[in-house]
Amino acid sequence: MISTRIVAIRHGETAWNASTRIQGHTDIPLNDHGHRQAQLLAQALAQSDPIDAIYSSDLQRALATAQAVALQTGAPLTTHVGLRERAFGALEGQSFAEIEQALPELAQLWRTRVPDWTPPGGGESLLTMQQRVMTTLGALAQQHPGQQIAVVAHGGVLDLLYRAATQQSLQAPRSWHLGNATINRLLWTPQSLTLVGWGDDAHLQGLVRDEL
Predict the structure, then answer these.
(1) Strand order in the sheet with 4-10
(2) Which terminus has fewer CB within 10 Å in the chain: N or C?
């Protein structure tokens, strides 16, 4: 059976991660902490199994993380808009607490992960994002049978990959970690996505956050 090994990575930390603000498609850079996480991640991956290709969201927080990995591993890097975070429209830039206080009805829809709810102002539903992410992953993975690729994206993207690999619904309560710059391993075949390992943060020396 043709398979592709995938190292799935959430970008390093940003200032909006630290202040629990929703980023979505807003193009926020890594903070100093995030750059350090990216360097530690890159060093760890350079010492593990070879990476044949790196694919990254085109948003700069993911791209900067991927560039650090590319520099250390020598693997070619390509950006793909299909790996972007979920678009949250008018909610981007607000903290979770601010949304709950000012827009409690919308906060409830977001908290309960209503699959077809679309955030106002150009947002994206979970169902639409799921189709985008899984289609993108399949298209990238099938180009590398028998190889290993790194996919550098966002917390929402990794959440969907974990759910697909463990056959959990979009609304299942999350009990898994989505830390910045942790190492997560999956196995893709045309028939399935399988979880191999998740949430490896040993390389980060305690510099990890999970605010989702």
Answers:
(1) 77-79, 53-56, 148-153, 4-10, 183-188, 193-200
(2) N
**Rounded CA gap, 202 and 37, in Å?**
11
Is residue 212 domain-resident? no
pLDDT in tens, 67-124: 999 999 999 999 999 999 999 999 999 998 999 999 999 899 988 999 999 999 999 9
Q: Is 80 among the catalytic positions? A: no
Question: Which residue ranges of the chain lie beneath pLDDT 50?
Answer: none
- Two structure tokens written together for 68: 């650090």
Distance, CA of 34 to CA of 38 (rounded, Å)? 6
Q: Which of 11, 25, 33, 203 is catalytic?
A: 11
Q: Is residue 28 part of a domain?
A: yes
**Within a domain: 98:** yes
Phi first, then psi: give them for residue 189, nearest 5 degrees: -130, 165
Number of domains composing the chain:
1
The active-site residue out of 13, 85, 92, 124 is 85
Q: Which domain holds residue 38?
A: 4-204
